[in-house]
Amino acid sequence: MSHALQDQRPAPAHKSAAPARLTRGGLPRWAPAGIAALSIALGCGIGAVAGLASKIQWGLIASILFVVITYTASAVVENRRQAKDRIATSLVWVSFVLAVIPLLSLIWITVSRGLKAFSADFLTHSMNGVTSFEPGGGVYHALLGTIEQVALAALIAAPIGLLTAVYLVEYGKGKLAKAVTFFVDVMTGIPSIVAGLFILTTWNLALGFGPSGFAGAMALSILMMPVVVRSTEEMLKLVPNELREAALALGVPKWRVILKVVLPTAIGGIATGLMLAVARIAGETAPIMLLVFGTQLINGNPFEGAQSSLPLYIWEQYKVGSDASYDRAWAAALVLIAFVMILNLVARGIARWKAPKTGR
Amino acid sequence: MAKRIDVSGLSAFYGTHKAIDDISMTVEPRSVTAFIGPSGCGKSTFLRTLNRMHEVTPGGRVEGKVLLDDENLYGTGVDPVAVRRTVGMVFQRPNPFPTMSIFDNVAAGLRLNGRYKKSELTEIVEKSLQGANLWNEVKDRLNKPGSGLSGGQQQRLCIARAIAVEPQVLLMDEPCSALDPISTLAIEDLIGELKERFTIVIVTHNMQQAARVSDRTAFFNLAAVGQPGKLIEIDDTDRIFSNPSVQATEDYISGRFG
Predict the structure, then answer these.
(1) pLDDT tens digits for A33-56?
(2) What's the pLDDT tens digit per position in A1-12?
(3) What domains appear along chain B, each with residue ranges and CATH number?
């Protein structure tokens, strides 16, 4: 009843928020690309006229111009809201380009310089009998060392990290879980040289073992463990609780629920996290220097005697300071990047292969 | 196969908060009992105490007795895993295991509990899918992932998964609330068939559904938000919907309240 009464009253007059017309002026679709081209041209022009030597300054001028011109054009032709939208979009684009340029130039420099000394021989030979100043020699001993050390480190760190994450997500509560989380966070911040010194004092000095790939692997595993725990933890948290409850309600013991339902559901993400952790430790130099010592010879046994590794090899070759050794350093850098990239591709493959399927 | 459930003086807690207070009721074997009541009155919590799933929730705690025939589920030395094998559960939202095929989903309860021969599994899976009225729709794609089915099919897959382990009691927590009327009808028909073999307890917000499928209906209510839920009355479904003995029940089912 009351509704009907209210409806008869005239609606209170107030300014409507709705626009009078739905159409509006708009920049053409090619506008962002056009403005980008214009601002790059202007940036180069201004840079050349003002005699700025650094191309970085040219680029910065161009990117600032891009943002300003986009905003002005949109504010004039369209309206304030559109202009704000466009300024946000153009800032995102500029940041993206600024972030990608160093990455691309790094890959470009590594590939262009690394290819000089890179060959099948480079991959299959060591530095045995090659003086550092002359060309030739190869990276085989270092590549072998890196693979063995990283594999050993992963063998140590992956199970411990995985089980810690399972504990934290599935079982942990109260003070112990909080303490574990805290120490994992602390471990994330350990500088790699400190991990190296720790193994040096315990394994090498206190227990009296000599330098070996295994000693390096232990230090690397200390660095790898917190990364594995963190990434696995996040992945396990993403598994819906409903799946755990569904399995529990079928009368499945908790450990089997974790093993057969929770872990398989998260395995793609866990594998990716593992590979990223491996990629992180593959480039470590400091603990390797302390513990693996470095050698020019092929040593396939990581438990006995000095080995080499790719980052250490790069550092050694660069230190020599001859043209030939520079080339070798860059080629080794190329091998290291390729190694990490292949690992990443493998991880993505596993993630895609194991991901929960949705197709009909 | 089916067993009687005898609940006496049961209260459930989340931490210090009491969710349901002093509930006593009897559920007859080979019958369908429906729980109705406003949201938050503890129907689902009570249902989850019947197969010890309540304690899976952090802070979940139960006082009182639940007798399954003559065994107390909360007695000393009772293995919650064994309880859940005896009392199966179907959840509100269909939750097939995403990494498993349709076949593996149905076989999951058996496979995760012990060793079965392939031929045995094939037989049980076919029987369970037929029991859930899903066999004809999926028999040609048993190796496809279970998450590729429609919502109604997924829910029937979950029912097949639950009955594959041959429980004595089947608990259903709003099994149709995420489904369209046709899938709902399919599941209601299925409940009618399943009660020949199982004791069924179903939580529902749909009063027509309670009237259609259940033999007995229990009405739950809570005094105010934050107060524990209580069992107001339980009676034959016909009586509850025609001539309930408590005024609050009549108010609720006639839509004057809640």
Answers:
(1) 888 899 989 888 888 888 888 888
(2) 445 445 555 555
(3) 5-253 (3.40.50.300)
Å between A248 CA and nearest CA of chain B: 7
The sign of the CA dihedral A214, A220, A222, A227 is: negative
pLDDT above 90 covers what percent of chain B? Answer: 47
Q: Which of B60, B24, B25, B31 is nearest to B45 (CA)?
A: B60
Range of the domain at A45: 27-114
pLDDT cut 90: percent of chain A above it:
51
* Subunit contact A356:B86, Cβ cutoff 8 A: no
**Based on the domain organization, do A87 and A222 belong to the same domain?**
no
Pair B163, B194: CB distance under 8 Å? yes
- In chain A, what are the helix, strand and coil shares in percent, each to the nearest 5? 75, 0, 25
Residues A176 and A82 in one domain: no
Q: How far is A266 from chain B (nearest CA, A)?
A: 9
A&B contacts, CB < 8 Å: 92
Q: Where residue A322 sits, what CATH number does that domain have?
A: 1.10.3720.10
Taking contacts as CB-CB distances below 8 angstroms, the residues of chain A near B149 are 360
Distance CA A245, CA A251 (A): 10
State whether A246 and B88 contact (CB < 8 Å). no
Tokens for A37?
């081209």
- Give the model confidence (pLDDT) of A149-183 as tens digits: 999 999 999 999 999 999 999 998 889 999 999 99
Put simply, the chain A residues between 242 and 271 with a CB less than 8 A from any chain B CB are 242-253, 256-257, 260-261, 264-265
Q: Do A171 and A241 fall within a single domain?
A: yes
Residues A165 and A106 in one domain: no
Number of domains in chain A: 2
pLDDT in tens, B140-167: 999 998 888 988 899 999 999 998 988 8
- Contact state of A249 with B84 under an 8 Å Cβ cutoff: yes
Please judge whether A240 and B95 are an interchain contact, meaning their C-beta atoms are less than 8 angstroms apart: yes
Q: Please indicate, yes or no, whether residues A65 and A146 belong to a single structural domain of this protein.
A: no
- Residue A255 within any structural domain of the chain: yes
